[in-house]
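Problem 12. The chain below contains 432 residues. Write out its predicted structure in token notation.
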Amino acid sequence: MAEKKYIGPEAIIEKKKQYIMPCLAHFYQHPREFVKGSMQYLWDSEGRKYLDCYAGVSVINCGHCNPEINAKVTKQVNTLQHVCNIYLTENFVNLAEKLAEVTPGNLQKSFFCSTGSEATEGALLLAEIYTGNAEILALRQGLHGRTKLGMSVTGLQMWRTDPNPVGGIHFAPNPYCYRCPLGKKRETCDLACANAVEDIIKTATSGHPGAYIAESIQGNAGIVVPPDGYFQRVKEICEQYGTLFISDEVQTGFARTGKMFAIENWGVTPDILACAKALGNGAPISAFIASAKVADAYTRPGASTLGGNPVSSTAGLAVLEYIEQHHLKENALARGKQLRAGLRELQKKHPVIGDVRGLGLMDGAEFIEKDGSPAAEKLDDVLETMKDRGFIIGKNGAARNVMAFQPPLIITEENINDILNALDDVLTEKQL
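Solution.
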């Protein structure tokens, strides 16, 4: 059989210009065409191999083309692919049962859909149905999707492309300790950013808004990890004012932080949890999950044509089984600790790294100029060079100056050492 010919990155870019809406950009000044994946590795159309340190933005937690998962998915594809969830099939109820076991607290009932945007939108709808109030509290620099409401509750300007966002939404300062929006110091702030949620409820709402929504760790904001006590205080405030707490676990779910869901790191049980991405390990599936008390308010007809389809549900079940059997939570903790320790050693040598933060294998290194301002161009240059050396690393942050590590959770100790050594070499060569 003749070897497959690929059109290459230049031709893809030309076709994008002709046939894809211009809102879709791409990473890198000189991007590659990826054609193959295997566990933590990718290959491009010219045969070059890369260590994937971004996992398709926190999707491929169990590795690219994972053979154990794909064998089960392939069998399901060849047996029953789709009938819509208004008919009875077994996989999606089994997956809902398993999610009830692995989610925190009394979360029990799921609604399946296909994307993270649908999951967060559905969670907000459920909160409004249950409370009778459409007012929403969200965080500055949060990101919750590309639907109308999802964009409206997003606190990052570059992703708020809707010229007429939904009203009734109020933004609280995010718990970004490195660049505190309130000008406080972590040691003496007394959780001012959390207490601001109560101030907003008292001064800008009806007094009992329907929902508070937050990512457990803000991904696109730059891997912003809240201080201990933040979510505990916010949950107290929400309960006091009859507001449902929605945890957006679209990026942080399924062992990414060393817990099945990141909110568990703070011992808080949300009223509703939204998840997607890694649940399918590449298969399109998402869900919002609530306690029976809250979920049972959703009684009017609702269905998702592709939500919880037999194939994606099979992938979800296989993912949960793989996480448990292969101890991915434990590996995320160990390798994340190794990565952050190594980045902090590099921080001592390279002043361009202003801050290192994260939990498990969701970690960020913030690039700064000598005056402490964001160094986005320097980060882009480093990422381009790291790509040319065989490492795919992400970027995020409001100023796009945070190097983001969200690799497959099967990554090894040797892989982490390779990343750190290559990054040290690049920063040294560039005198950063």
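Discussion. The first strand starts at residue 34 and ends at 38. Students who got a different answer should revisit the alignment rule from Section 12.3.
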